[in-house]
Fold this protein.
Amino acid sequence: MTGPLIAAALACMLAGAVVDLGLGTRSAAVRTLPYLLGAMGSGCLLAVGVHAAFAAPTTIPIASLFHAGHAALRVDPLAGAFLTLLFGISVAVSLCFASWAHAEANRSHRRAAATGYLALLASVAVIVLAADAFVFLFAWESLTVSFYVLTSAQRGDAERARGAWATAAIGKLSGASLLFGFLLLAGRSHSFTIASWSAVGPGALHDVAWVLVVVGFAAKLGVVPFQVWIPIGYPAAPGPARAAMAGVAANVGVYGLWRFLGVLGRPPVWLVIGVLLAGGLTALLGVLFAGVQSRLSRVVAYSSVEHAGIILTAYGVALTGVAARSPTLEVVGLVAASLQVVAHAVAKSTVFCSLAFVEVGAGRDDLDALRGVGRRLRWSGAAFAAGAVALAGLPPTIGFVSEWFVLEALMQQFRLSGLALRLGLAGAGALVALTTGLAAFAFLRVLGLTFLGRPSGSAPASAEAGPVGRAGLVVLALGCVGLAVVSPWEVRFVARGLGPLVPRSAALQALRSPWVLQPVYHGFSILSPSWLWIVLPAACLGAALMAALASRGRAFRVRKVPAWRSASAGVAGPSSYSAFGFANPVRYVLANVLGTERTRRVRPPGGLGGDAASEPASLGGAPAGVAHVETRTKVVEPVETYLYEPAWKMVSKLADAARRLQSGSLNAYVAYMLVALVVALVVVAVLR
């Protein structure tokens, strides 16, 4: 059953790519067909995942088919759990993509978009199922190519081209890191089969391989300092392709971390502390920049950086348990991280798919220009609200459940004896706690002032999703809230998927009772998301009844006020409170972290012309003959400014100096090659 379903899924994706490249995008039906085939293929892989989660592991040899040595696919409960999550989301994303592509406004999108999307899905499936290094790396590089195709499909300006190149560069860095790590492990074990690398014992080579593996997978996730491609790469992709990149493809990095924890075993303590702190800093940096962006796509993209940090931090708790030889703490971290992966994947896909339909009507994604968009696009607005509340970690969504687990996991440092690990957990916990508070600020700003705000006079035209797209949005939005209701069942499924890493019985200790959750340790704390869905509505209803009785019916009188009201009542138009103004306190208070730059100049009466700013400020209208004081504010990405830009300048200088070698002699070139060969042989001899 498993093999034919995988073959059928890959055949659907290949057929969709043929339709896209062969027939073009001029007809609405032709534009839609590749994505419907992608939905069919995703459904097949979803069935494979559900079956694999409950069945015994199986190996599918493919070497005879492709003449690729001992190449094979491996289907086990861990792969099944990730296939279920990723391709369950892919079905809904494909439906949204089909509806988005059918719209008349998207006739101009290039035919390569569907091909890149289908290649992305196929690459994700092969990565999750790969049993050897060759298949894994081939699929990993194919995923990088699909990312580049998607981010370059709509290159209409320099910013999109920059996003495409940055995405490709980080992807190649990730692949190179994994390649070197795999070669070290294969050279020591004399096998390219991933499972055989567990025989590599502790030592310098083992530690170097651990570092290379973590760097390779963390770069795909967007962990500092590799996060720079996400805020420019995701917005460069067309429509729901962003949901596929952030909610589906990025999670292969998570899968790799989970898989190699079972393969490599105990990591060095210094690496564990580095993972914890890198995760905490990534989460904080991501949410800070998400809270001050003026473009909706960049807000959501930086939120991906935030959640990558939270996931890595919870993974660091699991590594702490392995390093400290505490199996229970390992289970705590893996369960918390896995729940966070589910929450982020579902919520981020929901938000990006909703944003795709918002941009169709508006033609842009500026927060202040989209005021009131949720009132005009009710399906997209409702789905975006569900995803945003989940990303903010607010009850009663799955985001609240997962972040509760992560924070509870980080509070277990008192169970450790080593001071270094305890300090690492405490520092990461403080960073994640601060992150969760700022996340609510970032997304409530978007919901209150953009989606629920009063429509501006120049409101963009509406372009709601079609029936197929609405079905996809409903499935994703229900996932954001429904998974919280059935979270005890989700924990059971996660425990089954983690079976290759930790005992299933240990992971099931996260269930205090059939409907009550706990962070594996008995007596620490409990939570029942299912009961929360009963208690909160009942409390709201009780408060409403008490208010009605206390007011003697006056509470039911109709009163109309704006959904989000500033302190300056009566101020409307461009002078009213805006999403940009709401974020100004963060820009000022955290100016040293954000690198906030402010410029002011006085405009003479008679106009506001001039250059546009990267972060547009809200300028109030003034009577004729009155000068304007214009303030421009922007924030600076510290990693890009202080790390990558100086490095790029240095590389450029070295490249200019190396050009002189092109006019050298053949003897000099042979000498260079001989020196490089000798150095490589010395390095290999030392490592062996």
